[in-house]
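Marked as duplicate of an earlier ticket. Keeping the data here for the record.
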Amino acid sequence: MSDTLTKEAPQSTPQGTPEGMVKGGVVAYLCLDGALKAAEFYKKAFAAQEVHIHPVDEKGRTMHAHILINGSSVMLSDPFPEHGCGFVPLAGFSLMLPVKDVDSWWSRAVDAGCTGNMEPQDMFWGDRYAQCKDSFGVTWAFVGPKKG
């Protein structure tokens, strides 16, 4: 096995990234039809905090939006097919939010306009779990401790 696969990658803070925003791991970068609308919706549904929104172009599209959800970065952009970044419908994944209160996170998301796919319930593996889907096609999963 290559040493590059077994060694941990060095952590760095890219220029322009606020200190404390880079934690390592994986950051979701979603290409959505309506990235600015999604960022605003995520403020209501998931208590997202805006970090940076790149100004829109003449067609009302943004090439980059950075928000924080549950302490982690989520990046958004509109499709730019003229630059090889067209829209592809989202499928085959979900974004999971580890939270302390699955029920309140799920309820807030559904009250904001998400469709409840799976109501909160205690699962056989030992956690409480729920799912919803937003109008942009993203499935969100919530996982946390069972209700006491």
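See parent ticket for discussion. Confidence is low (pLDDT under 50) at residues 1-15.
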